[in-house]
Design goal:
It is a single chain. The protein has a domain of about 55 residues. Helix 2 packs antiparallel against helix 4. With about 190 residues, it is mainly α. It has a 3-stranded antiparallel β-sheet with strand order 1-2-3, with no helix packed on it.
Length: about 190
Amino acid sequence: SLKTLIPHTDGEKLSKAAILQQTAEYIFSLEQEKTRLLQQNTQLKRFIQEFSGSSPKRRRAEDKDEGIGSPDIWEDEKAEDLRREMIELRQQLDKERSVRMMLEEQVRSLEAHMYPEKLKVIAQQVQLQQQQEQVRLLHQEKLEREQQIRTQLLPSHAPPAPTHHPTVIVPAPPPSHHVTVVTMGPSSVINT
């Protein structure tokens, strides 16, 4: 039944897999065409309303009382028109979604009948991915617990660890027999 619905050349022999592939591509192209037509339809409606001599916008503009304090009825009508259009578009979208879901379900059931081994492989892959995700989450939780323990054991206001500065011993001139010790650091101190 799918083969009769998809566009193809008459007399062409197709495998079941090719029929399913072409069906999926045909559904995708129909969705794109629908989106394009809906956009074009909306643009044309706006164009007709704005530029038609009998458009509601122009009639309201001509009949409108420009006096002080006159209510702007046109804005309310425009908002109502937009609400109606949104409702219609939502209804069309819901219909298209239900048709698409129905077709996708048919494709899945046909694939299940044609390729039961393939479904087993896919199910195993999904199960393996879930197991890998669980292992990753457990590893991440372990790392977080270790980090939490480290932060609890080390006080947050502990002074920084002492730094060691190199000590340089420089011999004094020979007659005085003095040794000068220089400690290098943030505030250099020379001790004799």
